[in-house]
Design goal:
With about 850 residues, this protein is α/β, with parallel strands linked by helices. The protein has 39 helices and 16 strands. InterPro entries: CHAT_dom (IPR024983), TPR-like_helical_dom_sf (IPR011990), TPR_rpt (IPR019734).
Length: about 850
């Protein structure tokens, strides 16, 4: 390239339009024995590249040489510009005092347009340091000068920075206006890196406005743009982690933050970004119930921020540290005082996190019995309930509820809990993906628990039932949102099936599969990302179940002679709510932890009994069933009456084989995630055409032997087997069917429950596939292992195959929560269908089918493993 002034100076804007090209051309300039001015520009370009995407130590070396060369060039403007770039690098390296001194010299040396650019850089560095008011002052001084000089690029950067500072101060509307103006300017330039930054900034604004799906979509789009430029994206990683935490995906946020720290350390990157990533990881660990990791990450972040003279950031790290210490039970008067002082500091900074600190101080004080302090701090925290993003308002309502609790106002507690959960309801309607809706409920767990506790103490069983329903299985109340015929999602699902099928075939043949597994994981990430981008469009209607909207009288009327047993958990103990006969009664159960352990032992016993030769374990498993009954039903076991029973367990007890409990063994028993869900299923009308669909997947030990026999009993059902049992055809036939029976290998994915699957001829049929149905079958029977296994997430939510079907029109499901013997399944399924042909419900037919089986241990265990869900 030529070494003319214009061509060399053009390298500076190029570093953000095409970073790699700018770096290589700058290195070429240095190979041509350039003048001091041109060499200064080249070293500055290399320094910027190393500062933002490489080794900060190398950046400082190049920028100091650029400064010295600029001084030799006798250009005060050139020297001022380099000093501005050097100041940013010094701040990012943690050398705050030196960086601010460089800015002072740059402002003094530059004039007009150049000084405005230095002011912009200093404003950016002040934002990094958390000195937001000073940052606003500098950027406000810079923008008119940059605009008057018709400097589109730097004006757009300054508007973007001002918007980001506004967000840090909670001024969302001002930020959105600046982001929109900056994006309009970027559209007129070729600055690809800055355009990606504009998309990232829109994602940040969407997040602060409470639109999580839009935020995830925009941040992923920005990531794609950065990837094309080949530049690392540590700031974007921080922002994406913040959104993931708001979406209830804290473990993923922790993994992403830790991975970014590893990359940053590997290149010797900015220490400021490392501190921010450590703080992000600490927040994620705290939300993921890992206080030990939170303390470790937050302590290092706090030390780094202190050394970098970043008091705003240091205060936020301190907040996480105190929260994590309180979560470990280390509560003391000193911790209360620390939290209160911190809240005052955050309030002085006008930080949106200040209410969290006041709430923390109030909560610890309340636990220590310091009522006066608790009331004072909680009253301040409660002010945030009136405005701001949804989760900030939830914080305020939580403080209001605790304050009412501290002052002895039961009515005030219930009102605050209701208002806070309403805010979360509205927030969840913006989320289209069922996974996000389920995980978002974790934010309401404390409010629901407080309301249940007050109801237990003062309101009686019926009110406790209403509040138990208020925040139970709410994600299942509406179907997930799907845009019509999303071609990208469909293409991803097809590619996923092909790769997963090839990987499965390779495993069977003993061939290596690492490459295929890597590609499968990549496709899973793309599919999941696509679904998380979808925004909810279905508002809550008039049948919104929850809180005071739940009608216990309606439930009791629908039960008739039957009983519904809802298990609530308060302070770790099961409370049994027995509904029926026109009333709701409460009985005490055992400890939830004991019941969970016993349920796991039962699952192990059923796994053993699924194999011949384990008959000796049968009495042991039966004894476990008696123990489970004592823990889960208590005295209610003897008050069930003669009719059918519906069990509504908490999510953590979803794997209990209810038919094993002695009081339920001979009964018609069904399970529902909530009483509201059972009512919806009870009131769901079957499709008019009565179509039956029978599916046989590959690789079953019995080859799905029940399917041909069942087909012969239904006249002209749709039978899909061999090559016809491929996912597109299966989904097309299942849509709107009256009855579906699927005999296929089931795989539960504890690591990613939405990828739990049934094996078809062309690969796995996954939960995401089921969610594309306009209406899932009215009744569906899943005759293979583990099809009823679910993941407990959020406050009291479940993710898996069964729960994917319930919001889509399925009123009843039969599935297995444990491994079963394929041969023993065949007679059970034949007897089940015989009952359905006689007009029985799924629960009635399953009860009769169990009774018709041989009395040996293998067949009994097989019957116990299957559960009827819903009300059909």
């Amino acid at each position: 390239m030529t070494a003319g002034n214009d061509s060399v100076l053009a390298l500076l804007p190029m570093v953000f339009a095409s970073p790699g090209d700018a770096l290589s051309r700058a290195e070429e300039v240095l190979d041509t024995d350039p003048t001091p001015l041109h060499a200064s520009v080249a070293h500055q370009v290399i320094g910027i590249w190393q500062r933002d995407w490489g080794d900060v130590r190398l950046a400082l070396d190049h920028l100091r040489r650029a400064r010295d060369l600029a001084a030799r060039s006798d250009s005060a403007e050139r020297e001022a510009d380099v000093l501005g770039t050097l100041g940013v690098a010094l701040v990012h390296a943690g050398r705050t005092r030196q960086g601010l001194a460089a800015f002072e010299r740059g402002v003094a040396r530059g004039t007009g347009h150049t000084r405005a650019r230095v002011l912009y850089r200093r404003a950016y560095s002040l934002w990094v340091l958390g000195r937001h008011r000073e940052a606003l002052e500098d950027v406000r001084r810079a923008i008119p000068v940059l605009r008057q000089a018709d400097d589109v690029i730097w004006t757009a950067r300054a508007r973007t920075l001002r918007a980001t500072v506004h967000l840090a101060l909670g001024a969302v509307e001002r930020a959105e206006a600046d982001f929109a103006a900056a994006e309009a300017l970027w559209d007129t330039t070729g600055q690809e890196h800055d355009k990606a930054d504009a998309v990232e900034s829109r994602g940040l604004a969407a997040f602060h406005s409470g639109d999580v799906p839009a935020a995830l979509r925009l941040l992923d789009e920005a990531q794609e743009r950065y990837d094309k430029l080949g530049t690392p994206t540590f700031m974007l990683a921080i922002r994406r982690c913040e959104v993931l935490m708001a979406a209830g995906l804290a473990p993923e946020a922790l993994a992403e933050a830790d991975a970014a720290i590893g990359v940053l350390d590997g290149i010797g990157g900015q220490s400021t970004r490392k501190a921010e990533l450590l703080l992000t990881a600490a927040r994620a660990a705290r939300l993921a119930d890992d206080p030990g990791t939170a303390i470790a990450r937050a302590a290092v972040a706090e030390r780094l921020f202190a050394g970098q003279r970043r008091t705003w950031w240091e205060a936020h790290a301190r907040l996480v540290l105190i929260e994590a210490r309180a979560a470990t039970g280390r509560r003391s008067g000193r911790l209360v005082a620390d939290a209160a002082r911190l809240a005052e500091r955050l309030a002085a900074f006008q930080a949106p996190a200040a209410p969290e600190a006041w709430l923390l101080a109030g909560r610890i004080a309340l636990d220590l019995g310091r009522a006066a302090d608790a009331e004072r701090y909680l009253r301040i925290a409660a002010r945030s309930r009136r405005g701001g993003p949804p989760l900030a308002r939830v914080t305020g309502w939580a403080a209001q509820a605790l304050w009412a609790r501290a002052t002895g106002s039961g009515r005030g507690v219930l009102e605050a809990c209701r208002r806070g959960l309403d805010v979360l309801d509205d927030h969840r309607t913006t989320l289209g993906a069922s996974e996000l809706r389920a995980r978002a409920t974790a934010r309401g767990a404390e409010l629901a628990s407080l309301a249940q506790q007050v109801s237990l103490e003062r309101g009686g069983p019926r009110r406790l039932l209403a509040w138990s329903e208020r925040w139970r299985a709410t994600a299942l109340s509406t179907p997930p949102t799907r845009p019509p015929a999303d071609p990208v999602l469909l293409s991803g699902l097809t590619a996923f099936r092909v790769i997963a099928s090839r990987a499965e075939a390779a495993r069977r043949d003993g061939r290596p599969v690492p490459a295929l597994e890597r590609e499968q994981r990549r496709l899973e990430r793309e599919i999941r990302s696509r679904t998380l981008h979808i925004r909810g469009v279905t508002p809550w209607g008039g049948d919104r179940f929850g809180g005071d909207r739940f009608d216990a009288r309606r439930l009791l009327d629908r039960l008739g002679e039957g009983r519904l047993v809802e298990l609530a958990v308060l302070n770790g103990r099961v409370q049994v709510l027995l509904c029926g006969g026109g009333r709701v009664r409460r009985f005490a159960g055992g400890l939830l932890a004991d019941a969970e352990r016993e349920a796991e032992h039962v699952q192990a016993g059923l796994r053993r009994l699924a194999h011949p030769g384990a008959e000796g374990r049968l009495p042991v498993v039966e004894a476990m069933g008696r123990r489970l009954e004592e823990l889960l039903l208590g005295e209610a076991a003897g008050r069930l009456g003669p009719g059918p029973v519906v069990v509504v367990p908490p999510a953590r007890l979803h794997r209990v084989p209810w038919a094993l409990l002695p009081a339920l063994r001979e009964r018609v028993v069904s399970v529902s995630p909530s009483a509201s869900g059972w009512l919806r299923a009870r009131e769901t009308d079957p499709p008019p055409d009565g179509r039956q669909v029978l599916v046989r997947g590959p690789g079953l030990a019995t080859c799905g032997a029940e399917v041909p026999e069942v087909a012969g009993r239904y006249g002209t059902p749709v039978v899909l087997e061999h090559g016809d049992a491929h996912v597109p055809r299966v989904l097309a036939e299942l849509d709107g069917a009256a009855l579906a029976h699927i005999a296929a290998h089931g795989t539960f994915r504890a690591d990613s429950p939405m990828f739990s699957s049934l094996r078809m001829a062309d690969g796995p049929l996954i939960v995401h596939d089921f969610e594309r149905l306009a209406r899932s079958p009215y009744r569906i029977i899943l005759s293979s292992c583990d099809t009823a296994r679910l993941a407990s997430v959020g406050a009291d939510e479940l993710l898996g195959l069964v729960t994917a079907l319930l919001p889509l029109g399925t009123a009843g499901v039969v599935a297995s929560s444990a491994p079963v013997n394929d041969a023993a399944v065949v007679p059970l399924m034949l007897a089940l269908h015989e009952g359905l042909r006689r007009g029985l419900s799924l629960a009635e037919a399953l009860r009769d089918a169990r009774a018709a089986l041989p009395g040996d241990a293998l067949h009994q265990a097989t019957g116990w493993a299957f559960t009827a869900f819903g009300a059909a």
